[in-house]
Amino acid sequence: MKPYESFVYPDIPLDIREKLFQKDKQMVIVGVLGKSNEAHCNKLVDFNILHTHPLLSDESGAEGRVKFYFRSEGQTLFLHFDAPFDNFVLLNLAERMMLEKSEESPLHFIEFNSAIRTRFARVLLFALQVCHILVLAESSASFDMSYLSIFKSLKIIREKYVLKFLPKMLKSANVGSFMGKDCRLCSPRLLFMFTLPDNGETHLLDEIDVLETKVEDYINKMLRNEFIITNNSTMSLFSLPKTKQFVFYSVSKTRSQDPLIESIDLLSMYLSKQQQTSTGTLPDKDEQEILEQAKPYDCFGFPSTFKFELKDPTADEERGIFSLVQEHVEDALEFGFDENDSSGRQRVRTHFALPTTEAWYAMFKYMHELFIDNPNDPYYDAYDADYSAYLQNFHDIVDIDERFFGEICEQGLDLAMLKYKDMLPPHYSASFHETKYQEALHILMEYARGPELKPSIERLKEYCDAIWQSGKQQCEYPSLRGNPCVLGMHKTIDPAEHSSGVIYVSSCNCGRTQGHREDPYTIRQANYEFYQIIAKSCSNCNRLERVPFPVFEPSVSDFRAAEFINKNFSNLMSFDSTGRTASDVGPTVRPIPGHTPFQSGSQRSQNSSASLSFNIGSDVEEDDEEGNVVKKENDRRNRHGEQNPPEESKETEELDALDSNDEEDGELDPNNEEMEEIVIKLGKLKHDTDSAVGETEHPAGPARLPSTTEYLPGMLHSACPAGLLPRFPSWSLVCLGSSSIYTHNTSLPEHVQSGFLSGSNFLLPWDTSVRLEHAQCWAASYEKIRNRKKGNQHASKGYEHNKTFTLKIFIGVEYECLRGHRFIMNAPDSILRCGSEIVRDSGSKVVFNDMPIYFPCPCRNTINNTAQLMRVHIITPKAPVNVIIDPKVKLFQNNMQNSITFTTGMTEPIKLTQSSYWILRLPFVYEGDSGPLMAPTDVNPASAIMHGVLLAGMYGIRENELNEESIAMGVTNTSG
């Protein structure tokens, strides 16, 4: 038998063309398609028609390659298809497709599997159109169930698209006139070739025959159940022979053998046998047998002009796939294929065409263009509508996996969109939007899988963002308390137009009335406007005496906010061991046992006009450090020229202090030996003369006037530029009236101060000892004036025997939470729970210590229970001295690494009137040069001072100005 000629389409050598296209030559077309594990991908190895083993050639499998095998005298034309199911073709495709994908969107396995299935389905459909017989090769012993979906898809495609466009296109191309209305040679027979595993076991032919019969029944039943084949072969994708075998199990080891290695082994065996003989040579017969076995292929070593013939595989009685194929070929040549069921009344004639090879090849070329070349060209534009629909829908119909995952992604996406739209408010914040999106995404992730997962997530994100941004986006401009604006997105000129919808409860300046306040967006709203509004509802606020704080007073109409570089000097200050900066340290003081140093007023007040110097020390300490703080007398000194002797002033002041000792109020206690002692060295009595004998006036430096064209945009603090004032006050200081409003036994009444927690409405007593050192002339003058006012011209009490008296001042450091709960603290880390906790001199703990600005409220509010220091209650005593205050609030940032100290802006400490009830209201919100300082939401009592403090040294004592009017007032108070 002559060897098979071969060529790769479309390159046909001239000599082969002449042999193939002989006049009127007809051939049965047998296609071989399927799976292989070798690099050459040639599945004809088991057919034993190759005179050269594929492994000896340098060719490897290539997708879409069609190789022709035929003999000129034969009547069978083999078409070998290299398809994507061949392992090495599959590997090359995977590498190429992964390179085409970017790193941002890597190749998904479902995408790759879908592409491979689509490519294989195109080749399979093409093979079924141009072949009489198709052998489906399997590299395993079982049927691949994934073929079922491909078969069903191709049946749909053929009936829905191919039978529409192919007849008219074949007619227009003037090829394939023999194809008939089915546009194919016949209903092709499909044969299955499986490979038994090479596990060393011997397989009996009877067992293999039984296996083949069972598999045939299984495949036939399965294909009929899926309606892939029917009784009418014309309506079937392919046909199965009813009376002939169509399943073959190969036991040949040819496919897995390497002929070159076996030839080397035979040659080695030959040499070893030759050495074992005595003569060193083998008999000619044995030598020729071994050499024949060692040839890698037949006629190896012969010249190319040598004529040789192969053995006919059908001549051997051994079973083989080639013999099975030849039986079907002979059947086709003799009878054609008729697989219809003839049990009906009328026999349906089937189409079977056996054209000449030349006519068939012309049809093959055109069909290859339609089914293989054009679909692989991404730029091809079909002119026929039916053919264009075929190209567009082929992948969607074949790719059931990708379609399945796409459908579940769509279902999950619909449910996710419904989840997002469920119960949406009119406007909502970005955090709420993100929460709803995450809930929708969770629903999507429960359904979505496959390559459409990422696009579905992107579509969901775009959908949710589109809904949110189309009128539902919340403004979210933060308030000074950190709450977002709940209004829709809007453009505002004034931040006060925002609204967070949060309502707080706060008290008015005097503390009598509580009311609701909106969450502030400006410092003016927080620290000024609210208290102006609630004052209209309060029966007390607008009638009370108040201390005005310095504010900006414009002199021009086009005034503006000052622009300056924020150097934030407070951040540059170094902290001492107490965490306080140098700017917060007052004058040199004597330490008090059990207390921190008391400081009287701010640094500015020490350099301003004053008429006293005082220190604090124990009763037994010497007063050798008196006069450390020297203050100038104020302008009243210039209006009084008369000077009293120091001795008289001293005696008069002491006498007035003794007379004003009211035991009912408990304000003066001359027998207290353990209280802190304030030493006051009194100056001269002021009269109408303009000169002061014996004292040199210190000239005051020029004071910088505040600007009348530029105002301070924030709040006053220690590092803000000099000469700039705010447009409104953030502090308030009012006098409720006489000190008799408060009774220590009954605490603050509810109608005077509302909102206090039970047991926490007591003020704390602060007992401080005052020792007067008079000039004799001052005392004498004081005594004369005092006796004249009383109508007693003679000396009264022996004030010389008692130069020391005790002042009892009541102090209350009040905190208020956002729900309106108010309470007094009796220590920096302790809340006053009841009046029984108050002991003698309890106020010293709050006077001589830094008090935290923020502290946890004992109420049950778990969301934000932080209370803020809002008021300081001060009840001044009946005495010839005044209580002065200089409040400073120091707030810390970045774990106390930075700080800023807020002040009232007063040039001197504020002097409070005698025997009065004063309330200092602190700012609700603090703002520095860089913006508002947010109040903490979670405060620990042990570390509350880390957020901010009201600095110690706020309180002090100053002499009352000595003139006839004040002395007369003192005499009246004493007598009353």
Please, could you describe this protein's structure?
The chain has about 1000 residues and is of the alpha+beta class. Helices cover about 30% and strands about 15% of the residues. The protein contains 21 helices and 31 strands. The strands form 7 sheets. Strands 10, 12, 13, 15, 16, 17, 18, 19, 21, 22 and 27 form an 11-stranded mixed sheet that branches. The chain has a 7-stranded mixed sheet with strand order 1-3-4-2-5-6-7, with helices on both faces. It has a 4-stranded antiparallel sheet with strand order 20-30-24-25. The longest helix has 28 residues. The radius of gyration is 55 Å and the shape is elongated. The C terminus is likely disordered. This is Nonsense-mediated mRNA decay factor SMG8. Involved in nonsense-mediated decay (NMD) of mRNAs containing premature stop codons. Pfam families: Smg8_Smg9 (PF10220). One of its GO terms (biological process) is nuclear-transcribed mRNA catabolic process, nonsense-mediated decay.
β content, as a range? Answer: 15-25%
Structural class: alpha+beta
Residues in helices, as a percent range = 25-40%
Total beta-strand segments: 31
Using the CA coordinates, give the radius of gyration: 55 Å
> If you average the pLDDT, what whole number results?
79
| Biggest β-sheet strands, sense, barrel | 11 strands, mixed
Distance between the termini: 148 Å
State the helix count.
21
